[in-house]
């Protein structure tokens, strides 16, 4: 996947969360994840990937550990049939 396409997805995720009342920002160089979102005590650490993009298990585990350390929810955002879907990596359920 191209850098431009991935960056576009990150902005779409950020914008969707802002419309839902979150403070959301795209992190520089996508380190340690792509989007940070906060709303009334809920903190989301979000990695954005297109459905066919590879998300290594080590990177997934690292995101889960980091989120646990700071009391955040580790998430994976995907573009599914033109819709942004956000998955909680702890339990595999969609939260948005």
Structure write-up:
With 96 residues, the chain is of the alpha+beta class. It has one domain (3-94): 3-Layer(aba) Sandwich (Trna Endonuclease, Chain: A, domain 1), CATH 3.40.1350. The chain is 32% helix and 33% strand. The chain has two helices and six strands, in the order αβββαβββ. It has helices at 3-19, 57-70; strands at residues 23-26, 35-39, 42-48, 73-80, 83-88, 93-94. A six-stranded mixed β-sheet has the order 1-2-3-4-5-6. Strand 3 (42-48), helix 2 (57-70) and strand 4 (73-80) form a beta-alpha-beta unit. The protein is globular. The mean pLDDT is 91.
Give the topology string: H per helix, E per strand: HEEEHEEE
> At the first level of CATH, what is the class?
Alpha Beta
Specify the CATH architecture. 3-Layer(aba) Sandwich
Strand tally: 6
**Ends apart, CA distance between termini:** 24 Å
**Tally of DSSP helical segments:** 2
The neighbouring-strand order within the major sheet is 1-2-3-4-5-6
Percent of residues in β-strands: 25-35%
Give a nutshell description of this structure.
The chain has 96 residues and is an alpha+beta fold.
Explain the layout of strands and helices.
Blueprint: H1 3-19, E1 23-26, E2 35-39, E3 42-48, H2 57-70, E4 73-80, E5 83-88, E6 93-94
Parallel strand pairs: 3-4
Antiparallel strand pairs: 1-2, 2-3, 4-5, 5-6
């Amino acid at each position: 996947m191209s850098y431009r396409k991935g960056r576009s997805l990150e902005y779409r995720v950020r914008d969707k969360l802002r419309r839902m009342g979150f403070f959301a920002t795209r992190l520089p160089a996508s380190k340690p994840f792509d989007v940070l979102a906060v709303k009334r005590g809920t903190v989301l650490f979000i990695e954005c990937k297109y459905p066919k993009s590879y998300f290594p298990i080590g990177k997934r585990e690292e995101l889960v550990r980091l989120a646990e350390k700071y009391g955040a929810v580790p998430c994976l955002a995907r573009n599914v049939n033109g819709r942004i879907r956000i998955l909680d990596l702890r339990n595999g359920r969609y939260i948005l």
